[in-house]
Amino acid sequence: xxxxxxxxxxxxxxxxxxxxxxxxxxxxxxxxxxxxxxxxxxxxxxxxxxxxxxxxxxxxxxxxxxxxxxxxxxxxxxxxxxxxxxxxxxxxxxxxxxxxxxxxxxxxxxxxxxxxxxxxxxxxxxxxxxxxxxxxxxxxxxxxxxxxxxxxxxxxxxxxxxxxxxxxxxxxxxxxxxxxxxxxxxxxxxxxxxxxxxxxxxxxxxxxxxxxxxxxxxxxxxxxxxxxxxxxxxxxxxxxxxxxxxxxxxxxxxxxxxxxxxxxxxxxxxxxxxxxxxxxxxxxxxxxxxxxxxxxxxxxxxxxxxxxxxxxxxxxxxxxxxxxxxxxxxxxxxxxxxxxxxxxxxxxxxxxxxxxxxxxxxxxxxxxxxxxxxxxxxxxxxxxxxxxxxxxxx
Amino acid sequence: xxxxxxxxxxxxxxxxxxxxxxxxxxxxxxxxxxxxxxxxxxxxxxxxxxxxxxxxxxxxxxxxxxxxxxxxxxxxxxxxxxxxxxxxxxxxxxxxxxxxxxxxxxxxxxxxxxxxxxxxxxxxxxxxxxxxxxxxxxxxxxxxxxxxxxxxxxxxxxxxxxxxxxxxxxxxxxxxxxxxxxxxxxxxxxxxxxxxxxxxxxxxxxxxxxxxxxxxxxxxxxxxxxxxxxxxxxxxxxxxxxxxxxxxxxxxxxxxxxxxxxxxxxxxxxxxxxxxxxxxxxxxxxxxxxxxxxxxxxxxxxxxxxxxxxxxxxxxxxxxxxxxxxxxxxxxxxxxxxxxxxxxxxxxxxxxxxxxxxxxxxxxxxxxxxxxxxxxxxxxxxxxxxxxxxxxxx
Lengths: 394, 394
Description:
The structure is a homodimer. Chain A is α/β, with parallel strands linked by helices. Chain A has two domains: about 5-125 and about 215-225, Thiolase/Chalcone synthase (Peroxisomal Thiolase, Chain A, domain 1, 3-Layer(aba) Sandwich), CATH 3.40.47; about 135-210 and about 235-390, Peroxisomal Thiolase, Chain A, domain 1. Chain A is about 35% helix and about 20% strand. Chain A is built from 14 helices and eleven strands. In chain A, strands 3-2-4-7-1-8-11-10-9 form a nine-stranded mixed β-sheet, with helices on both faces. In chain A, strands 5-6 form a two-stranded antiparallel ribbon. In chain A, β5 and β6 (about 205-210) form a beta hairpin. In chain A, α1 crosses α3 (about 65-75). The two termini of chain A are about 30 Å apart. The interface between A and B is large, with 69 and 69 residues. β3 (about 80-85) of chain A pairs antiparallel with β3 (about 80-85) of chain B, so a sheet runs across the interface.
């Protein structure tokens, strides 16, 4: 790859995640977009192309087909190519992956990826029904949301194997909420104790309410650009070192290698780095304890060593490989189409040293893992991105 | 651009367009995909990535978020990146544009673009409501479908200006149906007379029923590949010479240059050709007479000369620049997410000399114009592709 193909994250921005009954999808998206453009030091006329991610606007707001255009029109971004993408909970990172590709292909220099979701509607049963369509409806219709059950079964099996304990599940949720409490964009900004987690309402044994991500309204936006096109304004440059996607039923004949692992291995190869080089990670903890599984699947620790790795303190904000310093999905909230770009926003702040009280220890490389939908127990879409801070920390 | 960036159309395939009450979205898509793979001489394991286009599956079938994955699972394409795209009636060509970009970016060698739609449902009022979401619902909700009205107003203004006549509107519809009658994939395969067109039910003065595209079920698929990766099996090679996209409210301060014209001009520049070099075109005639306007907007004739150009016979199958030899949207049918890829299928057959009774005169260059949605009277998404037959006709 030549320097011409290098892609940088030029700007990021978020609308806080939470419950915003007075705001529309357009309101949420507008704030994230303007913040990302401002952060990149550019105006609406500087954007060459847009990738827009929204998962539920068709079913919840009735707006299909041109969702991105409707929010961009409000902001004044006009005339440029707009592509509306969907990939369930991985839609945000899918928009990012396409934006990176647009730069690498030579077709654009400055590309906006935006994700927005409004899950709180008058009748929440509609939201729960809509979430079913993250899987094949012919398979799951009427069965209720399967995500939670799948995570629960996997965790139960691990507890039975003795490689992790119920207390680990609670403790990782405590860590997520402690991090989220420091994040002004997080939906749930209150520390919790392990006892509170374990005593909260059971969702699917062993998962309790305080372990799970919640419905959320929110938006996030990321501007990527060809290296050298935009002025970094004296701030550290954040480069996209790897962008890898996968989806669907695993093609691994043994069935043992998850799509997350496949994407991560390809991402490490693309960036020519090892898992041990990663200094901070945001992973798709739709239920906080999933972080324990993903630490293994992403190669941060040996298979089966997720709990041990967590107990060592490595994944805390002050640890050697902090995971979900933002609070993750469980504490930051999970407005489906926006989550993947919220991860990139957090990691960009971390790499620049702009994460405030959540700042991790001088990370050089950051990894984002975003996962969406289900097909026969595997994720329907996974994207893994690796970002790098180009300048040394002083 | 180096030869490494050259992208070819390696295979195309369609499920016939029409009304298929017994078939599901998966059934329609499966046929198109398998035909495109077979046409390309490859199997499901040879596909590196997939772009999937469907516009109304969320609102009509309830399946959002992972629509592509659900149909690919049926075919046995697994594990590869899948991106679900939407852009109203331009979704199919948006999937193609992204597939081309994926090859040009270096991330994939063989990419499938597939579009599928099932508009005939039990209650057709639901389909008409869903079509409204091709525009900003905050603007159009409850106003009924505006597409037809916008086309009608533009055509009425032209008739008032004396640059075209009601008879032209009828005659171009006669041509579309005559072409469609020769197309085994077309929904309406019956010739009509100008009198029948003019006497059919009025939709929006001066447009009548036989001028308009209809609801349709159908699917189309296209395999693109990095040049040299796949064996062409001794057939002529069809290369993608230009892929240009635009959308939204025009940024032209004068307001006079349509997005279609902007995309076409960029496509001619990318391919280093002139409109006069194009040998065959498929354009987005959601109403057949729109072909008269697009002939001008795409530069095939001077502004205001669309009717004169048409009356000359240039746009007939045997003419110098045949337009919509497939029958176009009005006769082939318009299953929203599939149309853009049906255009590419037709043009590929034309360039290879495989179009049977619809075969045009040895075209070297072909142009596809696909348009979707509305924002303040302009298309929300436009894609223009130019394809080239690499080998001379013997």
